[in-house]
Amino acid sequence: MIGGQYDQAITDFNKAIEIKTGNPYYYHRRGIAYMNKGQYDQAIADHSKAIEIDPKFALGYIGRGDVYLSKGNYDQAILECNKAIEINPWRVQAYITRGIAYGSKGQHDQEIENYNKVFEIDPRNASVYLVYNNRGLAYLDKGQYDQAIADFGKALENNSLYGQAYYNRAYVYYLKREYDKSWDDIKKAQDLGYDIKKAQELGYKIPAKFLDDLRKASGREK
User: Fold this and answer.
1) Exposed/middle/buried for residue 167 (C-beta within 10 Å: 0-12, 13-18, 19+)
2) Does the pLDDT value for residue 115 go beyond 50?
3) CATH second-level architecture of 126-222?
4) How far apart are CA 199 and CA 72, in angstroms?
5) Is-contact 168 194, C-beta < 8 A?
6) Half-sphere exposure for 84 (CA within 13 Å, toward CB)
7) Based on CB atoms within 10 Å of each CB, which residue in 7, 151, 177, 205 is the most buried?
8) What percentage of the chain exceeds 90 in pLDDT?
């Protein structure tokens, strides 16, 4: 969803809530739409209302955790996910959100443990390629380059069109001085339409001078 689609979702859930005010799922879904619009206070209020209706509604805690994660309140995001897992330990999104929060705090061992739990519970989850990519970034931050390369490869096995994983793996190959492999992955990403400058603008962990440094180190232009 983008732009007006979020507004339409909010309108639709407003109507659903008018018809059935006691359904926590409607508040949860409206809360997600508010979060995606950057209206965090409204999002928290909706997830809190869902929890008020049903204190055992794990999605409400996960939704609230996602909002706190977006706000940069990582400790609170972790607490919300802890509560969701206490209620329903099979909700993989709780582990994903908690893993991202731990990673944002620089606690990569805990981050990796949460991603491992996702693979244990639901290895065929539709988001598994993103989890492999995230775990690869955690290994990258820990300096465990071979594990990072393996995870970026797993991400691509699960989604061969995920160009960001090619860029991430290219950067690790650069750090390992395997320049030809690095260039190969950059070309594959570019063939998919991924642009490294755009990726950097979006906040991905690719140093601003990566391509310039690779050109100097490899003696190649592309």
Assistant:
1) buried
2) yes
3) Alpha Horseshoe (1.25)
4) 20
5) no
6) 27
7) 151
8) 79
Q: For residue 52, what pLDDT band results from cuts at 50, 70 and 90?
A: very high
Residue 1 confidence class, pLDDT cut points 50, 70, 90: very low
Residue 44 to residues 64, 79, 81, 202, Cα–Cα distance (Å): 6, 14, 14, 25
Task: State the pLDDT at residue 208.
Answer: 64
